[in-house]
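Task 17 of the worksheet. Students: predict the tertiary structure of the chain below and write it out as structure tokens. Keep your answer in the requested format; marks are given for formatting as well as content.
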Amino acid sequence: MSTITWKIYLKSDPKTVFDLLTTAEGRAKFWAEKAEEIDGQIHFEFPNSQTYQSRILKTISNQEFHLDYFDSLVKFTLVPSENGGTDLTLTNENVAESEFAEVNAGWVSVLMNLKAVADFQCDLRNHDPNRTWGQGYVDN
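Model answer:
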């Protein structure tokens, strides 16, 4: 098992970023087609028809958000920057070696779209079930 760590700087403040991560409306803007929360679980629905029920493990308002995600542990840590923005660190623990390359690249896609939405109100995804990650499209 491996750990993935990525950092990204966002011009948006921690509250804006936290709201994108922790609300169904926010997650649908940059991550999944749908991501409703019911009883402490996020019901992710992706363009390729894949679904996953993710348990929310820890929430500290505007600072941390942890969840079980495809049988691994994902942690988002938000730190306010000196200019009002956010330094976000994503840590994904317990990633299977056989899935490391795909998951590692997948997080870059998710984080860059988070930046596009948070800082520029622009969703880079195509939302086309015929053009998904599994078919080689990075704008899934």
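Marker's comment: The first helix runs from residue 14 to 22. Residues 2-125 form a domain with the Alpha-D-Glucose-1,6-Bisphosphate; Chain A, domain 4 fold (CATH 3.30.530.20).
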